Amino acid sequence: MKLDPRHLVQLAAILDSGTLRQAAERLGTTQPALSRTIAMMEERVGTPLFERSRRPLTPTDTGLELAAFGRTIQGAVERADMVSQQITAGEYGSIRLGAPPFFCDQLLSRIVGKFALTHPQVRVVLHADYFPALVKEILNHKLDIVMGPFELLERQSTLDVERLIQNRNVIICRPGHRLARQKKVTTADLAAATWVGHARESMLSADMKSTLADLGVDQLNIVFESNSAGALLTMVQDSDCLSVLPLLSVVHRIEAGELMPLPVVTTNRGRWTGIITPADGGQSAAMLALRKVLARDIIAVVPLMNKIVGQPHSRE
User: Phi and psi at residue 163, in whole multiples of 5°?
Assistant: First the structure.
């Protein structure tokens, strides 16, 4: 016959307490009830759990072995209770976060890194992909949160969007680039430059062309194209090529002096960026905590963005 796990926990408590009276007080039961439990277990295993002729209570080898299982069960219960409390408090869990590659490169990795300092038991899986693919993933319940240019999102009653900031496209180059030293960069300068482009399936490819077209540049000499954020940024930093990127995705690199924006005022206001989550309200406390941190830290970058381009960025 099977042993009741609760009885194994009680047996461990008896051994750890030393007496039936102390064990009963610890377990919130009575000595007769514990005596009946011991008798029931001995009947089921077919051997004594305590030496009958010895006082104080002395366990047999079988009693010691079964008590060890009871301690394991009690430890698992206590661990489960602790994890349950952590989940309720938003301190434990797993979150699947998706964003376009350039947002992941520095912006989100920085934010998630700070989040990990205060939520070390929360596992964040950061998935980089193009926005249409990310939308499919969150609709198919394979992602919990998506951050990106939600203007491309078709109206979905199953998704909620929290509007954050309107991004701005900037032309970037390496520090020391000859055009960065000019007080004014002309259309002719841009037309004569070499460029690092984006993968054709990326919305950044169309944004780059439209941004430059607004400046009068219709033909681009693209010498390198990649869907890798790291490869593209390294190419710009190590060559005289230019590229066009959303300011939010490179603001920290500009602040660190790794990249520079050209002194060109772009008329293209860029896309709105927001946080997208399921509308069913089934968000864990950890998800809500991360969402709050994402919104707070992205909005915190706005003053730096304004300083870089001298133009307002806001939530409205």
Answer: -70, 135
